[in-house]
Amino acid sequence: MRSCSRWTLYVIVDRAAAGSRPLDELAAGAIRGGADALQLRDKAASARQLLEEARRLLAITRRARIPLIINDRADVAAAAGADGVHLGQDDLPLPEARRLLGPRRLIGQSTHSLEQAAAAEAAGADYIGFGPIFPTPTKPDYEPIGTGLIGPVASRVRRPVVCIGGIDRGNLEQVIDAGATRVAVVRAVCAAADPEAAARDLKALLTRHAARR
């Protein structure tokens, strides 16, 4: 669970993107489609609600032997026994999250520039989230970065870099061609008519490109 190096497809199970679809069904479909890691994101949930959701999803990810990461809430990640937390730039500082979660849990951090990516690595992030690459409703206040910095960030930091933000089947090859080897997706799976098939299609493309490198 501690290694992020082999991840290629990171699926964010997001309550807002899921609509009325149950999160446990989405999670199971994403896993069957080849997700290497799942993140639970529910910005509207109370701490109690998020804890309950995390425990339900954790039962699924444990059986599949893939990590479950909790968005933003290190306290909920600790209480649920999840595999880690993903922090934004305005969340609990990474060293504080590490003290709360200990050395065996994963901590990722969202970054939006080369400087932030380097700072996250220096602070001890296990993986770096980088984006938003394209416009996305999940980050309405951020200007898209585009693909031009993917290569420089991947070259600068040694931790695994996960590109995120508006990535879907239609633009995934563009992201891969820019140097990405790992991507996180939200709506490309959560809002798909068939989440399992959508995840499988994304994973197959990532795998084909990885085989050529």
What is the averaged pLDDT score? 95
Provide the domain count.
1
| Mass-distribution shape | globular
Q: Please list the strands of the largest sheet in the order they lie side by side.
A: 1-2-3-4-5-6-7-8
Give, in order, the helices and strands. Answer: EHHEHEHEHEHEHEHEHH
The helix tally amounts to 10
Give helix % range: 40-55%
Please report which band the strand proportion falls in: under 5%, 5-15%, 15-25%, 25-35%, 35-45% or over 45%. Answer: 15-25%
The H-level CATH homologous superfamily, spelled out, is: Aldolase class I
Stretches where pLDDT falls below 50 for ≥5 residues? none
**In whole angstroms, how far apart are the ends?**
25 Å
Rg from C-alpha positions? 16 Å
Topology of helices and strands:
Layout: E1 9-14, H1 15-18, H2 23-32, E2 37-41, H3 47-64, E3 68-71, H4 74-80, E4 84-87, H5 94-101, E5 106-111, H6 114-123, E6 127-130, H7 150-156, E7 161-164, H8 172-177, E8 183-185, H9 187-190, H10 195-212
Parallel strand pairs: 1-2, 1-8, 2-3, 3-4, 4-5, 5-6, 6-7, 7-8
Describe the structure.
The chain is α/β, with parallel strands linked by helices and 213 residues long. It has a single domain, classed as Aldolase class I (TIM Barrel). Helices cover 43% and strands 17% of the residues. The protein has ten helices and eight strands. The protein has an eight-stranded parallel barrel, surrounded by seven helices. The longest helix has 18 residues. The protein is globular.
